[in-house]
User: What shape does this take?
Amino acid sequence: MIKLKLSVAVFCLAFSGISAQVKDTLAEKMMVYQLPNGGWGKHNSDKKNVDYTAKIDSKLLKIIKANDNDLATIDNNATSKEINGLIKAFQSTKNQAYLKSAEKGIQYLLSMQYENGGFPQYFPNSSIYRKQVTYNDNAMINALTVLYNVAEGKEGFEVVDPKLKEKSKEAVQKGIQCILKTQVMQNGKLSIWADQYDEITLKPEKARAFEPVSLATGESVTIVKFLMMQPVNPEIEKSIKSAVKWFDESKIVGYTYQVSRENGKAIRALSKKEGSNVWARFYDIPTNKPIFGDRDGSVKYNYDEVSEERRMGYSWYNESGTKLIESDFPKWLKKNKISE
Assistant: This one.
């Protein structure tokens, strides 16, 4: 009996040792791609996009090793995607290497935040528009959502070092203040948000040639949803209500925006549809009219005047405001016992 117990104990110890070394293929790749400063890039030193489905052979590994810190970004979900993936992998494997890698990524997010609470698109790369406070493609909100989950111990982040939790709480509060400061005042009323801002003045800025200074609808929906996750105070309540009112007043009634594929190419079309509403991707700040940018830097007020390459290569309308108005906002009001 004693020998049996001893054998079982030895087996359990051996099994626990094996379990501690369980590996997740995707997480392993993410650690290889992680940059020295803790962040991740969206493309490699050879300008090709990071592809986690690709096998890392000696040739690709050489390219990855040539990646430097200037590639680190929160654009296109980079860095936040990897941190979330590593935390998920740690949950299933208990492999400490994944947790340490995620914590290094969290530290990178904390290090890139400006004192005013904003986040640049890239860090430390500050060339052209990369240093601007960036909501475009949900960059800043993705970063803040990771830090919010760290601070609150949600979505598996309860395992993170307590010191990072405290720092994340401070970062989230600074981020919220930046969000409130950057909500655009339009003709004396709070509206929504621009895609990017000057990192010093917090004034709306343009980015790429076809991304003019404007109000940005898709990203603003994501910002409002993030604010809805926070404890309510008068500033946040006013911000949310003002944004939802803007969406309701700025909708384009009776249209839908559809994307299909033909011969491998995206076909984007705005068409009439009863009972459906859309919003332009960008609205002119002074006039609140839909605007469209082109490769040559020109701004059009007519969608049909945009070059075919940009018209078919960019999403110029969305329907994201519908769920915000019809579902998310009423639920938020009810949850917080707030009158409309």
